[in-house]
Amino acid sequence: MITFLQIDTTAVAVQALDQIAPKAELSVIDIVFSGGMVGQIIMSVIFIMLFFAIYLYFERLLAINAASKIDSNFMNNIKLNIMNGKIESAKILCAHTNSPVARLIEKGISRIGKPLADIHTAIENAGKLEIYKLEKNVSMLATISGAGPMTGFLGTVVGMVIAFHKMAESGNNKIEMSTLSEGIYTAMMTTVVGLIVGIIAYVGYNHLVTKTDKIVNQMEANVVEFLDLLNEPT
Questions:
Q1: How many CB atoms lie within 10 A of CB 100?
Q2: What pLDDT digit, counting tens, does each position of 177-192 carry?
Q3: Alpha-carbon distance values, 90 to 96, 116, 129, 165, 167 (Å)
Q4: Transmembrane segments in this chain: where (predicted)?
Q5: Are 145 and 202 in contact (CB under 8 A)?
Q6: In the predicted model, is pLDDT for residue 100 greater than 50?
Q7: Most buried one in 27, 84, 104, 209, CB count within 10 A?
């Protein structure tokens, strides 16, 4: 009798465990895109912003790093060529050096013989063009750093509207959490992802601005050195 009771108890326990089946865990993608059609559209827009932010950051980073590379002996070689009257050799050296500094110095060398003010103006105008090339599309990162969180907040407002609409449709009936989950997911996840995109774009923008400023300072230092060379008494 005791044996039968033990068998029955074991069978009941096994049956109870079978009934309590573990719920399938949601993946990150399922959680992110579980906010209904409106939430999915807003989330897709945010992820497009993230893609462009990452692309723009690395594209500009590679361009800025390439622009910052210059031979440490470049200005010394330019100085020696100019002092020895080898203007064409100095031009060739600048032409073979692919950097903003070399292009500015080449612009100045091409104006040698004219008043120093004209040379300075020509270099300054060329410098503005080089800075524009360095800062190209960087402002887009600043735009995304603000647009990302704002789009996420839009999703929050839309999600809350959906949730309250579900509550209004239920009337006096009991409201189940499952009916509100779509709006809640939209409200929460769009805000989180939007803030993440904004932070990434903001940090990337400031990093690029810092690296660009270093190159601009390098350009200014080399231009001043070149102008001082031209201003030296012969």
A1: 22
A2: 555 565 566 677 888 8
A3: 10, 18, 22, 74, 77
A4: 37-58, 138-164, 184-205
A5: yes
A6: yes
A7: 104
